[in-house]
Amino acid sequence: MKTLRKSDLVCLRNGEVVDLIHSRRQKADIVIRGEKIDSIGTINESEFRGEIIDISNCIIVAGLVDMHVHLREPGREDEETVESGCAAAMAGGFTGVAAMPNTDPPCDNQEIVNFLFDRARSQLVDVYPVAAITKERAGKEITEMGELAKAGVVAFSDDGASVADSGVMRRALEYASMYETVIIDHSEELALAAGGHMNEGVMSTRLGVAGIPTTAEDVMVARNIGLLRFSGGFLHIAHISSDKSVEMVRRAKDEHLSISCEVTPHHLMFSDEDLIQYDTNLKMNPPLRPPAIIERLKAGLADGTIDVIASDHAPHSIEEKDVEFDAAPFGITGLETMVGVIITEIVNSGILSLEEALYKMSIAPRKLLRLDVPEIKEGKRANLSVIEPSKTWTVDAGRQKSLSRNTPYDGMELTGGIRAVINRGKLWQAL
Amino acid sequence: MGLQSRHLLGLEGVSKDDIHLILDNAVSFKEILKRPIPKVPTLRGKTVLNLFYEASTRTRISFELAEKRLSADTVNFSKTGSSVAKGETLKDTIRNIEAMNIDMVVVRHAAAGVPLFLTKCVDAAIINAGDGMHEHPTQALLDMMTLREKYGKLGGLKVAILGDVAHSRVARSNIFGLLTMGAEVMVCGPKTLMPYGIDEMGVEVSYSVDAALEWADVINILRIQLERQGKGLFPSIREYHTEFGVTKKRLEKMDKVITIMHPGPINRGVELDSDIADSENSVILKQVTNGVAVRMAVLYLLSGNEGGEESS
Asked: With contact defined as beta carbons under 8 Å apart, do A97 and A121 qualify?
């Protein structure tokens, strides 16, 4: 990562600027001066007095945002820190990440919010704290949402668990709506899901593993939509994994409720059938679902029901994952593989265009979180991701920037690589 | 000729030929068990670890006896509860023990997939003695041996498995093994104790014990874990007995003989009446005897000692 001084000039040469909002493409050289875009056009190489980075075969888009990331700091700095998580984000092509609050202590007060901002101060990546919906994520009393919103949190979530008490959830939706802030719910009815380790279905029956039924998600999504219909507010369903839940969100959108949802790359790439070897790097919550459901998730992406693609980057130590299946924690890392997985699995198979897919990782999450959408125009701040869609590469967990290695993609060949990211007057490029 | 795999992790995917091979060897070993000195030097010099993370009486004794009859050196490691809670991981435990030169490991664990996990940690041959709700292959093999002994074949036999199928590794291994051998399988029990999608595994499903008895040549009655009631999976032991218990009255209504099996230990008067358990149609104690022979066969076939002196 390199810091650009006000007088420093960098030219991204021979790339193609892609406007994700209007789906417009323009071959151009982009010159960046310090924090800002200086010019977009064609440079004369012999006269240019600055660094030239050749980005042939690459596209330049508004900086990508991963709106579902666990940075683990404070509390589990052995698994990830703000710094290492930002490094992983850069390597994955992101200039912003929303940090989930299930840290230890949890992000349920301004002090932790300020701590996170302080930790991220010198980073290229913008860290957007998500605060807890309830104090200590205990599901009882809502947090000081007004002050937290003013302190800069972008959303509220008790991610890792649902707000089980419907009364509390209702008040949270109502209260947060005064600040135009979205509630992100990890929709899971624990009475149905507790004790489970994988999707409940034919595979869990074959493997003899306790199941988590899709209905555990559906019941909670249905409840949340019911609350939203009554009391208003802004609701975002995290890591949607059930076809029935996608259908409920589709209908709620038809009713013009303020609802959105995200899907993770792994719920599109892997199915419960891949658990045949009891690989703990395929253990996550919500669990991997059967292939027929994955097809419905892809349909939900294609028709726009699913607004956002987010990684649910969940680092865990090797010690925690290298155990019997039942004892392993849920979650995998995902920042450094998301773009590659989505281009490989979703774009190259024709489910979404490249622009549509990147929109769901850039513009869509920014709009949901009420963030400014970076414009690629002269004089604007440079917040850019440079992606090489046709680049083929092999995932090497040992060389990732994340402090954790719990990725099921290790050794897998992906198409779609990251060339560089630029934000806050800093430049990172792949070697 | 040996088995296709160097481990016995389960019966799913094990071929008909391999099952026959194990059962044929078990028959030979059973002859040895009847001798005045029921011991052979087949596994002399081999060390077998019995790694039991879950309480077990008969399976552990049966394995231990099988090992001793084959002249193996045996070591026992028993630990209840989660390995994680005790500080040392399963992987560390097994690697430490293997460093003492263990040839084979017989493992029982509350978590499904542990035997497979161990194959990735150590070089020793792994034998699954029960992993969570997944498989208990030697139990199904001894069940099949008992049935083959009685009927001369397994193909075409109608076997009903009754009880808590959802939580039963015995049920799963029997389903996989019996279907491979060409038998027909029905599962029967309360709907709340049936695993999701069981009907897609090639078995009939019934919620009526009378219908199951009507259909079956053989009924394999699973032990009902009394603690399941506390989890609300069925209303009471009393109702379980009246709705699903195998009673003399129920069997007397049938105009045919039904072979009674049970993997033990029996809750007498709950899933099975005493007079039925001890009746002439019960093969429950034969199952126990065959258990030692089947485990000897599995240990021998996985030991790498081919063409040994076992069945002269």
From this structure: no
Interface test with B, best of A198, A199, A205, A277 (most B CBs within 10 A): A205
SS3 A416: strand
| Cis-peptide, bond into residue B265, ω within 30° of zero | yes
The 10s digit of each residue's pLDDT in A345-370 is: 999 999 999 999 999 999 999 999 99
Assess whether pLDDT exceeds 50 at residue B224: yes
Residues of A annotated as catalytic (active site), given as ranges: 312
Contacts of B250 (CB under 8 A, 6+ apart): B209, B210, B213
Biggest alpha carbon distance in chain B? 59
Beta bridge partners of B268: B272
The predicted complex's ipTM stands at 0.92
Which residues of chain A lie closer than 8 angstroms to B91, CB-CB?
Answer: 322-323
Where exactly are the structural domains of chain A?
2-60+377-429, 64-368
Compute CA distances B142 → A422, B136, B151, B164, whole Å: 66, 11, 14, 20
The number of CA neighbours under 13 Å toward the Cβ of B264 is: 18
Total beta-carbon pairs less than 8 A apart between chain A and chain B:
69
Among all chains, which residue has been given the structure tokens 């253990």? A283
Report if residue B156 sits inside a domain.
Answer: yes
DSSP calls for B253-303 = TSSS--EEE--S---BTTTB-HHHHTSTTB-HHHHHHHHHHHHHHHHHHHT
Confidence label for B80 from pLDDT (cuts 50, 70 and 90) = low
Is residue B43 within 8 Å of B303, Cβ to Cβ?
Answer: yes
Q: Which domain holds residue B34?
A: 16-135+289-303
- Residue B51, token pair as written in the block: 């790694």
Q: A64-368, superfamily in CATH?
A: Metal-dependent hydrolases (3.20.20.140)
Q: Is the full-model pTM beyond 0.90?
A: yes
Mean confidence (pLDDT) of chain A: 97
Q: Does the domain formed by A2-60+377-429 have CATH 3.90.280.10?
A: no
